[in-house]
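Structure tokens please, single chain.
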Amino acid sequence: MAKRGMCRNYKGPRPWSKLQSALYKVIERGVDFQMHSCSYDIGDWVGIPRYWITIGKDIVWDFPKNAMWDGSDWNFFDEAKGLSRLIRAYVDCPKDELLTCAFSDRWKMLPFLLACDRRIGKRRLAQMLEKEEYSCVAWIIHKRLESNKNE
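Here you go.
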């Protein structure tokens, strides 16, 4: 059974909703972006964390299902804390440093956040589209550029 809202960490539970709310403040509303977090209870009060991003009803990024491509050793709890730190660092990053900041993103989540960020304008989106290697991220950028034309 999935438990939503709180992810366990060594310092005690922290509300996911505060981090999620901060992230939503920098995300373009017209993209229908949502980031979810839950913990799947596997017994003995141990939960496996899961994060995923949806655009509309489509899951475009999922941890741990398809976010750990490098084959290295990793720990669910350390990775969940790292993801939360990445999201917080991303939200706190100044607008003019978004595309140049060296985030520690071993989960390949950053392209999805950048594609949906309202702080990035049409010109910079078009530049990102030229370099984009993930077809799903390119789809998001096209969706944003199309919605900006209609406004």
